[in-house]
Amino acid sequence: MSCPLCTTDGGLVVARTLQFRVVRVVEGDEAQRFPAFYRLIWNAHVAEFSDLAAAERHACMDAVAEIEQVLRTQLRPSKVNLASLGNVVPHLHWHIIARFDTDSHYPAPVWAAAQREAALPALDLAALDAAVAQRLAVMTMRAGPCAEAAGAVASSGETNASCIR
């Protein structure tokens, strides 16, 4: 059986590095109910976070934190959910989901049964995607000597995440 995260992007690509990509979920019920639903997907097929080298784990979690901060700053959600399950797709990926107390499932998990009709705020998703990409580009540039070789996420679409600290 082939891995869907190895054979497809897994969503709308917002940023791509040599080690991971960040996508926004744009298809299915999750996209309708939770429009600010992002995934950080590790490019290499590994199942567990502990399969990564220490520097890779740091780069991964730094990126997750940066995405979370963008969602908090731009959207002011009630909560940002972070999850890495892998039960259905055993390929390392993190879910980063802005939650609002008016969403259909709040405060229950996004995978639970809906509790009500949603009353979601209007979101400029293109601007949010750009802010996520820019924040990851800035993170890369802060990396120091590696940044010149890495390039900016927002402009080239690919950086060397091993340089991210």
Compressed to H and E, one letter per element, the order equals HEEHEHEEHHH
Largest pleated sheet: 5 strands, antiparallel
Tell me the helix content.
25-40%
Shape: globular
Task: Give me the count of strands.
Answer: 5
Please give the alpha-carbon distance between the first and last residues.
Answer: 35 Å
Number of domains: 1
CATH-level-4 superfamily name: HIT-like
* Strand order in the largest sheet: 1-2-3-5-4
Q: What's the CATH architecture?
A: 2-Layer Sandwich
Number of distinct helices: 6
Q: What's the CATH topology label?
A: HIT family, subunit A
Mean pLDDT, to the nearest integer, reads: 88
Structural class: alpha+beta
What does this structure look like?
- The protein has 165 residues and is of the alpha+beta class.
- The protein has one domain (4-138): 2-Layer Sandwich (HIT family, subunit A), CATH 3.30.428.10.
- The protein is built from six helices and five strands.
- The chain has a five-stranded antiparallel beta sheet, covered by helices on one side.
- Strand 1 and strand 2 form a beta hairpin.
- Helix 3 packs across helix 4 (125-141).
- The termini are far apart.
- 35% of the residues are buried.
What topology does this entry show?
Blueprint: H1 4-7, E1 12-16, E2 20-24, H2 28-33, E3 37-42, H3 54-75, E4 79-83, E5 93-99, H4 125-141, H5 146-150, H6 153-156
Antiparallel strand pairs: 1-2, 2-3, 3-5, 4-5
